[in-house]
């Protein structure tokens, strides 16, 4: 199957901005196709057209490049089932972590006004069943929050935990460092943001 952000090489002034993560919902497509057992997802294009992962003139990475890089960094190949009972503006996907042990999530907040506070639990606990995973919350979790510069979703600059992602003087990609958060605290997802979260002491049997 094929999807497209817009006819004729993408939408000018949109497809290479942070907004494309919401309009085309690139990371949402990665999550959704994984759930439906797709094995390969090809993104057109690395460079060329308005939807390129790199600026076609300077070759500076566009926001979706960093989203793809973080997906590759934290999301493993084993897909887990996850649901939420909140707003339809919040989307969530979960995989076994790329680096064991643990589980990784990606949260996509499509709302421009509403932030979300996330607590994790097992549905079976509500019905008197036995959970099939163990979540201790003793370890700090790793969080990577992506937001647009100045809160403008049409910005081509993306922030990681509040710091702009820019090429180093050597023209290398900057290191993508998480912020460490108390594992027992709720996960906060800001309006118009994307967050990758890895929980090291979330033990799901499917990941072993």
Automatic annotation (TrEMBL):
This is Heparanase-like protein 2. It comes from the Eukaryota. Belongs to the glycosyl hydrolase 79 family. One of its GO terms (molecular function) is beta-glucuronidase activity. InterPro entries: GH, Glyco_hydro_79. The lineage of its organism: Eukaryota, Viridiplantae, Streptophyta, Embryophyta, Tracheophyta. One of its GO terms (cellular component) is plant-type cell wall.
């Amino acid at each position: 199957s094929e999807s497209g952000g817009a006819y004729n090489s993408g939408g000018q002034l949109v497809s290479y901005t942070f907004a494309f993560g919401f309009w085309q919902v690139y990371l949402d497509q990665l999550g959704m196709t994984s759930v439906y057992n797709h094995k390969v997802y090809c993104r057109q294009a690395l460079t060329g057209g308005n939807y390129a992962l790199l600026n076609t003139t300077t070759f500076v990475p566009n926001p979706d490049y960093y989203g793809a890089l973080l997906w590759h960094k934290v999301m493993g190949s084993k897909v887990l089932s996850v649901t939420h009972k909140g707003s339809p503006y919040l989307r969530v996907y979960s995989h076994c972590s790329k680096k064991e042990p643990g589980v990784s999530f990606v949260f996509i907040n499509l709302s421009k006004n509403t932030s979300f506070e996330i607590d994790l639990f097992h549905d079976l606990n509500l019905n008197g069943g036995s959970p099939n995973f163990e979540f201790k919350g003793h370890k700090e979790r790793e969080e990577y929050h992506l937001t647009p510069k100045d809160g403008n979703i049409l910005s081509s600059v993306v922030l990681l935990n509040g710091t702009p992602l820019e090429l180093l003087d050597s023209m290398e990609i900057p290191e993508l460092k998480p912020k460490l958060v108390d594992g027992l605290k709720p996960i906060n997802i800001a309006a118009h943001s994307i967050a990758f979260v890895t929980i090291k002491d979330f033990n799901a049997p499917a990941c072993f």
